Amino acid sequence: MAKKGHRQHIILESTESGHSYHTTKNKNNTSERIEVKKYDPLIRKHAVYKEKK
Fold first, then answer.
1. pLDDT tens per residue across span 1-15
2. Are 8 and 22 in contact (CB under 8 A)?
3. Rounded to two decimals, what is the model's pTM?
4. Kindly report the CA angle at 22 between 33 and 4, in degrees rounded to 5?
5. CATH number of the domain that 15 lies in?
6. In a domain, 12, yes or no
7. Is 21 a domain residue?
């Protein structure tokens, strides 16, 4: 049975390459799009990741 609640699956995509991370976020607490700095293994440094869609 699927989980019930306000958490939704999102995709974080790098602004410098095509790499992406998959995670969840709570739509009630964070309605705007997420923008975080994470490690990008394709360019081997930290890059800004923005929420896709």
1. 666 789 999 999 999
2. no
3. 0.84
4. 80
5. 2.20.28.120
6. yes
7. yes
Q: What is the DSSP string of the chain?
A: ----SSEEEEEEEESSSS-EEEEEEETTT--SPPEEEEEETTTTEEEEEEE--
Among 7, 39, 24, which residue's Cα sits nearest to residue 49?
39
- The pLDDT of residue 12: 97
| Cβ–Cβ under 8 Å, residues 26 and 34 | no
Determine the structural domain holding residue 37 and report its residue range: 7-51
Residue 39 in any domain: the answer is yes
Is the CB of residue 8 less than 8 Å from the CB of residue 2?
Answer: no
Mean pLDDT rounded to a whole number for the chain: 93
Residues 6 or more apart whose CB falls under 8 angstroms from that of 18 comprise 42
